[in-house]
Write a structure and sequence with these properties.
The chain has eleven helices and 14 strands. The chain is of the alpha+beta class. The strands form three sheets. A nine-stranded mixed sheet has the order 1-5-6-12-11-10-7-9-8. Strands 2-4-3 form a three-stranded antiparallel sheet, with no helix packed on it. α5 (166-172) runs antiparallel to α10 (237-256). It is globular and about 85 Å long. 32% of the residues are buried.
Length: 360
């Protein structure tokens, strides 16, 4: 029987990295940070814990059940950082002004929440990502998606980026309550379509079949134009406008010639309730869950007192460390034995000044 009180084990939601494994993780994170910096993004750090009450309305049921809570010395309820985007939204609203926009930032940090020890695929202890604040148009979406594609080039494995639209979903189902939309969205996320059609019909929703067909689509870039255009005129002018926006996004992504495969996947609706626009997840053929996720959340910062649009992504770097493309310059050179320490020291100084790694 498993010893529940084995204090030599790590608590759920934490992990340690040591020696070679930690070295690879650091190299991968540093490579991403350099890339983001070269694209004009500045580093940010969020607190490890913050007051729970301000975030509680923004947490879905699953996240609430997984976060760690604690009481401070004044009796206030705190939560450990379980979602960097939420913590970042509060913090940047305190320091940014309208004149600073658009603002670009990146982060590399741990998240702390309970994870099922048997489900290695959900290991998300460390995230690296970006936020583009104050750029509400499609150029902001294109910038973030193209940077995600470039970031994934740091890893030696194939990726597919699935792009959906929370905005399209909200427009098609605008007549439903928040609770009912959440129920429909959860079934779409699970690609459980048949019950949705029955539910829509029971609610007297016209075009039930067409709506379910629309949100079950998974299309390549080449298929998007002709297929999606067939749904124009079925729902509303606002829906047609959002379809045009999707068509424009994919047309421009194709023009960019991104190296990773793209899919329009309208069952992708974002796992957090604060998404308002395009949402996306990146997958490998070796992981059943997303290794990177993101999207647009134009109303989130306003909840913390700073009304600005925002779009970004997070890469779950621990899922990808084993695929990191290490450069040959990372090889360690062993200093010749048999020399005096002074001789070995001088040789080490010479080699490290050339950017090489050594061991005395």
């Amino acid at each position: 029987m498993k010893n529940k009180h084995n204090y030599l084990r790590n608590p759920q939601g934490t992990e340690g990295l040591y020696f070679e494994e930690a070295d690879i993780h650091k190299q991968a994170s540093s490579s991403l940070e350099r890339m983001f910096s070269n694209w004009g993004y500045s580093p940010v750090k969020t607190p490890v814990f913050d007051f729970y009450d301000i975030y509680e309305p923004l947490l879905d049921r699953d996240l609430k059940s997984n976060i760690y809570r604690l009481i401070d010395r004044d009796g206030d309820l705190l939560m450990l950082r379980s979602d960097i985007t939420l913590f970042l939204a509060k913090q940047v609203g305190r320091v940014l002004r309208d004149s600073d926009l658009p603002a670009r930032c990146f982060y590399s940090d741990t998240i702390l929440r309970h994870q099922d020890s048997e489900d290695v695929s959900k290991n998300e202890f460390y995230q690296t990502g970006i936020e583009l604040i104050g750029k509400p148009d499609i150029d902001g979406d294109l910038e973030v998606l193209s940077l995600l594609s470039l970031a994934l080039d740091n890893y030696d494995t194939d990726f597919v980026i699935h792009i959906g639209s929370r905005a399209l979903f909200d427009l098609v189902f605008s007549s439903f309550s928040t609770e009912k939309k959440a129920e429909i969205a959860s079934k779409f996320l699970d690609r459980n379509f048949k019950p949705v059609e029955s539910l829509l019909e029971s609610e007297g929703f016209e075009k039930s079949k067409e709506a379910v067909d629309l949100f079950s689509l998974i299309l390549t870039v080449e298929e998007v134009g002709l297929t999606l255009a067939k749904y124009k005129g079925l729902f509303s002018v606002a829906v047609d406008s959002e379809i045009d926006k999707i068509l424009s996004l994919f047309s421009q992504l194709q023009e960019c010639g991104l190296s990773h495969e793209l899919r329009l996947d309208l069952s992708e609706l974002g796992t957090q309730p604060y998404y308002t626009g395009f949402v996306f997840n990146a997958y490998t053929n070796l992981s059943g869950t997303a290794v990177a996720s993101g999207g647009r959340y134009d109303k989130l910062l306003k909840k913390f007192g700073f009304d600005a649009s925002s779009v970004g992504f997070s890469i779950m770097t621990r899922k990808l460390d084993s695929f990191f493309k290490q450069s040959s310059s990372q090889d360690v050179e062993k200093i010749e034995e048999g020399l005096s320490f002074a001789q070995r020291y001088k040789e080490a100084v010479s080699l490290t000044s050339q950017g090489k790694r050594i061991k005395l």
